[in-house]
Structure formats: structure tokens, C-alpha cells
Write a structure and sequence with these properties.
- With 472 residues, the protein is of the alpha/beta class.
- Helices cover 31% and strands 25% of the residues.
- The chain contains 13 helices and 22 strands.
- A hairpin with a 5-residue loop joins strand 13 (253-259) and strand 14.
- The radius of gyration is 24 Å and the shape is globular.
- Bound molecules: flavin-adenine dinucleotide and 1,4-dihydronicotinamide adenine dinucleotide.
- 1,4-dihydronicotinamide adenine dinucleotide is lined by residues 157, 186-192, 194, 209-212, 244, 276-279, 324-326, 356-358.
Length: 472
């Protein structure tokens, strides 16, 4: 007889494993099925985020940043070193250890919360009398509720499939065994900039080719402008407005033919090419046809604002549905769905989802950009404070960038906060909390911030809304 559950989650990434844990906390009998394999063929829950996304990329960003500091910044502190060398194999092994710690952590959390884990593919078999029959690896299970959290895959350029040797997706980009002399990156989005930064810091000559005429089009224009200036200074070559015509892998390298913004034919020869032009929702092998689960023209599972699909008691969360492809968005949806199944009022506020790009300096924002406010016809005030005038940033030796506040001209409610600078990823949380509580800029300006801290730049940017900064 097949095993019975209240809730079965298909996919063990941040959307799925968090949904499974929350549902178990709420008293349901829960299973999670995930097919990711580690190099020994064993289970590796955590999805894209843990295995080939957020976690390993941040491990490599940290290693390469240490290297860059040792090469170029230690001397400022009076520290002299011998010859600084990078052992790429060791850096990659450390990254793998960090990934494994996270995989093991999730398996431990499943045990702790009594979530049954199946290693293998989950797929729909049939639906009858309010019960869904699913395959979970080699087993057949039955459940009332299904949460689909099957994530996304890298999008390839037409005619240039990933071979992960020369043409790399995010997966291959995290496993390059030696620093390439020349690295090409197609797409100057989040992955392109983060992975381009890693290999540039380690010595690669990096050229990024971007189709759009504007750099970081989704980011506040003043932040994008500052970022373009700083990345150029670091040696990252970014060409905008290009049209890729051909990608040809050859002996030990890749040749990219493209038309530049002026319409001239160009060629770029590189040792490795990272293609980071977005991701596509993944429903491969889910057998949606068996139950009639509806997909849209992009292949995403169609859901309403509450993550309900067209089928009763079938829910979908994370990268496989609409909305930003971010781990914390997937997690929030996972929690909310588990709570809705329990009859509670799970809630995800799409207006306060923070974004972070882990370049150096980091870029982080929440809420609307200045260009969006203009387009929406909203009357707003802007206030900005540079890290150059912040004592902690000077002590750190990291004074690039600024914090920018956008507030409603009449009510002073914070509408957006945009940061480029040290630890922007951490600083943005204060802005998220403030916006979640519908705070005004003056609320932040009146709160005591520790000195010396980078967060004083946030307070000063809030003060700048009323043109009353104290340190600038
Ligand atoms: P996934 O993490 O993709 O997990 C889906 C899981 O389902 C996988 O384990 C997959 O094997 C499994 N699965 C799929 N189909 C089946 C099936 N039929 N049966 C069983 N299992 C199945 N986001 C951030 O917020 N911050 C970051 O810093 C960040 N960095 C990133 C860096 C890179 C290089 C990449 C590629 C992504 C990054 N992201 C980041 C995005 C983030 O990884 C995703 O938004 C997040 O992983 C989505 O979670 P998910 O649970 O929806 O899907
Ligand atoms: P992206 O959407 O961030 O950027 C893709 C870029 O490629 C865009 O600028 C786009 O204009 C460009 N592009 C598209 N087609 C092109 C073509 N044919 N030629 C040249 N340029 C082209 O996608 P990316 O970088 O692949 O990342 C996917 C997603 O993963 C991100 O959107 C984000 O949701 C997530 N992610 C999040 C991170 C974070 O939170 N720090 C880190 C990395 C990824």
C-alpha cells in the first residue's frame, strides 16, 4: 500500500524545504521529494540556491575578495605579505564544503521536524476523490495537498547549448578549475556581475556583453550609474546594446560574433564563456498532463496571489511561478502556503522584497526606484548620503557609494531605499523593516543609530530628505 501524507512537497530548494518544515511545525504529516544528487549520487537538498546558486557563489565571492584585499589593500593597513597566490582547487574545495554543510543541515532539519524525505524525482500520477497519487523516487505516495517547488534552470542562447566546459551556465561558472585568461560573460544581470567579479578578482580579463542599451535597467538609475563607473574602474569591460549573432566553441576557447551598439560587426575570443541571460521555470518530468496542472507560455505554473494553482489543494511557490527569482521570495511563499493549508492567513508582501547584488561594492534596494516613481507620477522627495562622509566606512577603508532614500512628498512615507556600498546586503534590512511598518523617513532620522556604524549613513540619508544631514 502506498504511503499516505497530508502534504507532499515536490522540490527541496528554499521554497520547498521551508514549506515542508513550516507545514510539519503546523502539525501535518509531511514528505518532501527532491532529486538533486551530490557527486557521490547521494541526496543534496537545498536546490539551486544551496548547490549552484546563492551559497556557492557567495563562498567564491568571499574567497576572491580576500585575495583581492591581500593583493591590493593589505598594504594600506601596514601589512606586508610574501607573494600572494591563489590555489583555485582549494578555493573550490572550500566552496564544496560550505555547500555540503548546508545540504546536511537541511537533512538534519527534516529529521528534527519529522519530515519524510524521498531522494528522487516527484511526479503526478493521478488525482481521484480529492487524493493525489504521486511518484516519489521509487515509491508511490498519496496526499491531500501538493506543493510544487521545482525551481528553475539556466536559459541557454539559441544554438549554443551549455557544455559546462567552454559554454558555462551558473553550474559550470562555479566549477572553473583554473583562472581563465579571458572570460566572456553574456548578460550583465545579477549572475553575470557576481561571477564576472569572482574571476576578474582572480586575474581574468572579463568582458560582459549585454543586449539592453541601459546598464542594470531594473536598478535605481543613480545607483546603476555609480555601479557602472566603479566596475569600469575595477577593470570589468561592459558593452551594452549588443546583439549576439554566433557563439562558436572551438579548440580550447569560444568565439562570439556580435553586432555592437553602433551596428558594427565584432568578434570576441575567450577561453570560457558564461551565459547568464535569465532562467526558465522548471517542470521537467513533473507529468503535469496527468492531472491537468496549468502552465503559462513561459512554462511557469499559473498561480494566483496566494500561490493556488488551477487544481484544488495544489500549490506552487518559488522560481517555478511568477515573481522575482529569489531564494527569500521562495521561502516566504513556502511559509505562507503551509499556513494557508492550515487555515491561517499566510502573507507575502511583494512590495518589500529586498534585492541584493553581491558585487563589490554591494548593491541593495527595496521598494520603488526614482524612475518608477516618475513613471507612476508620484510626488516624492529624495535624500542621499555618501559613505565617504561616514566614519566607519573610512575606518574600514571602503568609502565607495551611497545610501539613497525616496519618500512621499506629502506624507514622508518611505517609498524606496537604494544602497551601493559596504555591507549593503545587511544595511537594507533596516529599510525593509521600516517599509513593512510604513515608516516615514523622519522615523528613521529620529532613531538612535550606533556610532561608528555604516547604518549611520542610512540615518543620514533619511535626514537628507529634509536637507538636514549632520555630517555632510
Ligand atoms: P530551486 O532552488 O531551484 O529548487 C528546486 C529543487 O527542486 C531542486 O533541488 C531540484 O532538483 C528539485 N526538483 C525539480 N524538479 C523535481 C522533481 N520533479 N522531483 C524532485 N525534485 C525536483 N537568490 C537570492 O535570493 N540570493 C542570492 O544570492 C542568489 N544567488 C544566486 C546565484 C546563482 C548563481 C543562481 C543561479 C541563483 C541565485 N539566486 C539567489 C536565486 C535562487 O537560487 C533561487 O531563486 C532559488 O533557489 C529558488 O528556490 P526554489 O525552491 O524555487 O527552487
Ligand atoms: P538576470 O535577469 O539578472 O540578467 C540577465 C541579463 O541578460 C539581462 O540584463 C538581460 O538584458 C541580458 N540578456 C538577455 N538576453 C540576452 C542576450 N541574448 N544577449 C545579451 N544579453 C542578454 O539573469 P541572470 O543573471 O541569469 O540571473 C537569473 C536570476 O537569478 C536573477 O534574475 C535573480 O533572480 C537570480 N539571482 C539572484 C542573485 C542575488 O539575489 N544576488 C544572484 C544571482 C542570481
Amino acid at each position: 500500500m502506498s504511503k499516505q501524507f497530508d502534504v507532499v512537497v515536490i522540490g527541496g530548494g528554499p521554497g520547498g524545504y521551508i514549506a515542508a518544515i513550516r507545514a510539519a511545525q503546523l502539525g501535518f504529516n509531511v514528505a518532501c521529494v527532491d532529486e538533486w544528487k551530490n557527486e557521490k549520487g547521494g541526496p543534496a537538498p537545498g536546490g539551486t540556491c544551496t548547490n549552484v546558486g546563492c551559497i556557492p557563489s557567495k563562498a567564491l565571492l568571499q574567497s576572491s575578495e580576500h585575495f583581492e584585499h591581500a593583493m591590493h589593500h593589505f598594504a594600506d593597513h601596514g601589512i606586508s605579505t610574501g607573494e600572494v597566490k591563489m590555489d583555485v582547487a582549494k578555493m573550490l574545495a572550500r566552496k564544496d564544503t560550505v555547500v555540503k554543510q548546508n545540504n546536511d543541515g537541511i537533512l538534519y532539519l527534516f529529521k528534527k521536524n519529522k519530515v519524510t524525505f524521498f531522494h528522487g524525482r516527484g511526479s503526478f500520477v493521478a488525482a481521484k476523490d480529492g487524493v493525489y497519487e504521486l511518484k516519489a523516487g521509487d515509491e508511490t505516495v498519496q496526499t491531500k495537498h501538493v506543493i510544487v517547488a521545482t525551481g528553475s534552470n539556466a536559459r541557454a542562447l539559441p544554438g549554443a547549448p551549455f557544455d559546462e566546459e567552454l559554454i558555462l551556465s551558473n553550474d559550470g561558472a562555479l566549477r572553473v578549475g583554473a583562472v581563465p585568461k579571458k572570460l566572456g560573460v553574456i548578460g550583465s544581470g545579477v549572475i553575470g556581475l557576481e561571477m564576472g567579479s569572482v574571476w576578474r578578482r582572480l586575474g581574468a580579463e572579463v568582458t560582459v556583453l549585454e543586449a539592453l542599451p541601459a546598464f542594470l535597467a531594473a536598478v535605481d538609475e543613480s545607483v546603476a550609474k555609480e555601479a557602472a563607473k566603479l566596475f569600469k574602474k575595477q577593470g570589468l569591460k561592459i558593452e551594452l546594446g549588443v546583439k549576439i549573432s554566433e557563439v562558436k566553441p572551438g579548440k580550447g576557447g569560444v568565439s562570439v560574433a556580435y553586432t555592437d551598439a553602433k551596428g558594427a560587426e565584432q568578434k570576441l575570443d575567450v577561453d570560457k564563456l558564461i551565459v547568464s541571460i535569465g532562467r526558465v521555470p522548471n517542470t521537467i518530468g513533473l507529468n503535469v498532463e496527468a492531472v491537468g496542472l496549468q502552465l503559462d507560455e513561459r512554462g511557469a505554473i499559473v498561480v494566483d496571489a496566494d500561490c493556488k494553482t488551477n487544481l484544488p489543494n495544489v500549490w506552487a511557490v518559488g522560481d517555478v511561478v511568477r515573481g522575482p527569482m529569489l531564494a527569500h521570495k521562495a521561502e516566504e511563499e513556502g511559509v505562507a502556503v503551509a499556513e494557508r493549508i492550515a487555515g491561517q492567513h499566510g502573507h507575502v508582501n511583494f512590495n518589500t522584497i529586498p534585492w541584493v547584488i553581491y558585487t563589490s561594492p554591494e548593491i541593495a534596494w527595496v521598494g520603488r526606484t526614482e524612475q518608477q516613481l516618475k513613471a507612476d507620477g508620484v510626488a516624492y522627495k529624495a535624500g542621499q548620503f555618501p559613505f565617504l562622509a561616514n566614519g566607519r566606512a573610512r575606518a574600514l577603508g571602503d568609502t565607495q557609494g551611497f545610501v539613497k532614500f525616496l519618500a512621499d512628498a506629502k506624507t514622508d512615507e518611505i517609498l524606496g531605499v537604494h544602497i551601493i556600498g559596504p555591507f549593503a546586503s545587511e544595511l537594507i534590512s533596516e529599510a525593509v523593516v521600516a517599509m513593512e511598518f510604513k515608516a516615514s523617513a523622519e522615523d528613521i532620522a529620529r532613531i538612535c543609530h550606533a556610532h561608528p556604524s555604516l547604518s549611520e549613513a542610512t540615518k543620514e540619508a533619511a535626514l537628507a530628505i529634509d536637507k538636514r544631514t549632520l555630517n555632510f
